[in-house]
Amino acid sequence: MMAAALVLFTGLLRRTRGDIQLMILVGVVIAVLLRTLAVFLQRLMDPSAFAVVQTRMFAQFGSIDRGALLAAAGVTLLATLWLLRRAALLDVAALGRDQARSLGVRYDRLQMQLLCIIAALVSVSTALVGPIAFLGLLVTSLAHSLMQSHRHALLLPASALIAAIVLVAGQTLFERLLQLQSSLAIVIEFCGGLLFILLLLKGKLR
C-alpha cells in the first residue's frame, strides 16, 4: 500500500501542486471504482463463494485478527514516535510550501516521508478494522474544533483518541444498545461525506 500511495500521490502532487481537494476526490473515485468492481465480481461468482472470499480478504471491526495486532502495534508505535519527534517541523510545514522552505524546512522530502507514514497507518487500520472512507477527515476536523490549536503535538494525540472513541463507542452503541446490524462504517462514511461537502462549500479544505 505504501508503494501504491507513493506512485499515486507523487504523480498527483506534481500535477496538482498539492491541491488537497483534488487528491481527496481522486481517492473517492478510486474507492468507488474498487467497490463497483467488488459488486461486479459478486454478480459473477456464486454468492456463498463470494461471501467466503470477502470474509477472508477484508477485515471487519467485529472480528479482529489477533495475529496482526502485534505487528500493527509495532508499526503504529514507530510511526507515532516519528510524528511526535517532528511535530515542530509539521507546524512549520502547515504554513505552506514557500513559507516552510524559507524557514529552512526541506518541504518536499518531509512531504514524501509523511505520505509513507500515512500509508503505513492507513494500512494498519484497514488490516484491523477494514476500509472506512472519510474517517480521517472527520477525526481531524473534530480534533481541530475541540483543541482550538494548530500544534501537531496536541492535534496528533487528540486525533488518535477521538478515532478510537468513535470506533469503539459507535460499534458498542450499534451492537449492545440499539441491537442493530447496520455497519458503523456506513454511518461514518455518510457523516464524513457530508463534512467533506460542507468544507468544500465553505472553502476551508486546503
Describe what you observe in this structure.
This protein is an all-alpha fold and 206 residues long. It has a domain at 132-206. Helices cover 80% and strands 0% of the residues. The chain is built from ten helices and no strands. It has helices at residues 2-16, 20-44, 47-57, 66-85, 87-93, 97-102, 107-129, 135-147, 152-177, 184-202. It is globular, with a radius of gyration of 18 Å. The two termini are 24 Å apart. The mean pLDDT is 78.
Topology:
Layout: H1 2-16, H2 20-44, H3 47-57, H4 66-85, H5 87-93, H6 97-102, H7 107-129, H8 135-147, H9 152-177, H10 184-202
Helix pairs in contact: 1-7, 4-7, 8-9
Quick tags:
single chain; 206 residues; mainly alpha; 10 helices; 80% helix
Q: How would you summarize what this structure contains?
A:
The protein is an all-alpha fold and 206 residues long. 80% of the residues lie in helices and 0% in strands.
**Radius of gyration, whole Å:** 18 Å
**Helix percentage:** over 70%
Number of strands: 0
Number of helices: 10
**Shape assignment:** globular
Largest sheet: none
Structural class: mainly alpha
In percent terms, what proportion of residues is strand? under 5%
Low-confidence parts = none
Secondary-structure element string? HHHHHHHHHH
Mean pLDDT across all amino acids: 78
Distance between the termini: 24 Å
